[in-house]
Amino acid sequence: MDSRTKRRLSEAELDALARRALGTGVTTATELTDGYANAVWRLTLDDGREVVLKLAPPPDLDQLSYERNLLRMEAAAYELALQAGVPMATLLRAGFDDPVLGGDYLMLSALDGVSWNDVKPEGESALRRELGRLLARFNTVTGEVFGYPHAGIVGATWPEAFLAMVGALLGDTERYPTPLPRPAGEILAVFEAASPALAEVTTPRLVHFDVWAGNVFLDLSGPPRIQAIIDHERAFWGDPIAEFVTPTIFGELSEDDPLLAGYREVTPLELTPSALTRLDLYRAYLYLILLVENGPRQYPEDEYARIRDLATRSLDDVLDRLVRAAPGSGG
Predict the structure, then answer these.
(1) Range of 92's domain?
(2) Which of 38, 117, 136, 246 stands the most exposed, by the fewest C-beta atoms within 10 Å?
(3) Looking at the chain, which runs of residues are DSSP E strands?
């Protein structure tokens, strides 16, 4: 999707950047447009390699609070998740505060598979089960603090960090007025009332939080399998159950979902009432992101309208459910 946050580089600029980063120039460059925030190109280099360049938004563009230094989080996530056994593209170079471009970029090995968003392969149930196993491995990576360290939104406990994350996002609506189904103060109060359930989470774990079909690449050269999980920029340190939000976006997680079965092959996970409350909190947070992020990005209206409407209705529904589940609500 087109977005104001996507930087535009000329062929000469792409060539110069590749020479600085990898020591060789560019033969061909094709922009990949599936993403929503960062500009991405697939490059064929003079030495024959195929690589992907991911470029952060212009440094002078005011973004959402949690989006500061996103590519730095992504670079760290690539290395950490690879060590945990999650299939990844190879991070070839991470450039921060590039002296010429004045921003951050990543150079990654190009994948030869296909995006799950572009195909409907046979055996999707088995693939979903495999995805559950890989997400469980991703979540085995532990950290030292909760939240978004790269953006300075952190907490010593998960309730403290998560409420800071929500507060920062709602605070962004002061810079980017956003149509929300309820006033920001009322939304924050719902999060605060349900936040005691978050205290069950005591270890910061790496959470991708953006595992939709477009971020899963498949190898279809034989029996379908997952080749790689990509785009770790939205990752944070927190509660692993948040990982189930994007694979079930605008829906619900059911006990018979193969994703859940695969996850449980690696580590136990019980959908207790408290766990379901936490899952609803993370759903509400994601729907808020989908609404507020249009401020700096300015998506084309005809492309964004459906997502905005779905996110608005879904946010309102999950807030109602959190209110009913709150202690003393009688729901």
Answers:
(1) 11-109
(2) 117
(3) 26-32, 39-45, 50-55, 91-95, 105-109, 114-115, 146-148, 153-155, 205-207, 216-219, 225-229, 236-238
**Count of beta carbons in the 10 Å neighbourhood of residue 252:** 11
Which CATH number covers residue 166?
Answer: 3.90.1200.10
pTM: 0.93
Count CA atoms within 13 Å of residue 209 on its CB side.
26
Is residue 164 within 8 A of residue 66, CB to CB? The reply is: no
Q: Say which residues have a Cβ less than 8 Å from residue 93's Cβ, sequence separation at least 6.
A: 21, 22, 106, 107
For 92, the token pair is: 């070839």
CB 168, CB 153: distance < 8 Å: yes
Instruction: Report the C-alpha gap between 264 and 257 in whole angstroms.
Output: 11
Confidence tier at 1 by pLDDT (50, 70, 90) = very low
The DSSP 8-state label assigned to residue 58 in this structure reads: P
Percentage with pLDDT > 70 across the chain = 95
Is 331 inside any structural domain? no
Strands ordered across the beta sheet of 114-115? 114-115, 216-219, 225-229
Lookup: tokens for 186: 């009322």
Residue pair 136/262 in contact (Cβ under 8 Å)? The answer is: yes
Residue tagged 């090995």 (tokens):
109
Give the SS3 label for residue 253: coil
